[in-house]
Design brief:
Blueprint (H helix, E strand, L loop, with lengths): L4 H16 L2 H30 L22 H23 L12 H20 L1
Helix pairs in contact: 1-3, 1-4, 2-3, 2-4, 3-4
Length: 130
């Protein structure tokens, strides 16, 4: 079983910091960085879900739905939701593939996607909170 707790922990930590951030920090770019991250995590989750549904690598599937800009005060929640969606998609891909293999229609192992997603979250947190 794929342990997605590093991703969910990183996402929750960043989301909590965003929720507690002053309006000035959010307006100075933290909200923009967070929304970009939420959108990227969402697209990655949708690709995994499309691949699991048999749409190849997701390229032939319907275009990814874009997370809307709902304002600076909800970006923490958007990051949390997108991160949780990706964690669930990774868990489903791993469960479907089994512990030793990836599905034929998924080109990257779920564990590699997980590691890259954790790095994305950590990098976005550094950029947003400096």
């Amino acid at each position: 079983m794929l342990d997605t707790s590093p991703l969910t922990a990183a996402v929750e930590r960043f989301a909590d910091r965003l929720r507690a951030a002053p309006q000035s920090r959010l307006q100075q770019g933290a909200a923009e960085v967070a929304l970009d991250l939420a959108r990227e995590l969402s697209v990655r989750a949708q690709r995994l879900e499309a691949a699991a549904a048999g749409a190849g690598d997701g390229a032939g599937a319907a275009p990814a739905r874009r997370m809307p800009d709902a304002g600076i005060f909800v970006v923490g929640d958007q990051v949390a939701v997108a991160g949780q969606d990706l964690a669930e998609a990774l868990h489903a891909a791993w469960t479907e593939a089994g512990a030793a293999a990836t599905p034929a229609n998924v080109t990257t192992a779920p564990s590699e996607v997980l590691d890259e997603a954790v790095r994305l979250v950590e990098q976005a947190e550094v950029r947003a909170m400096r």
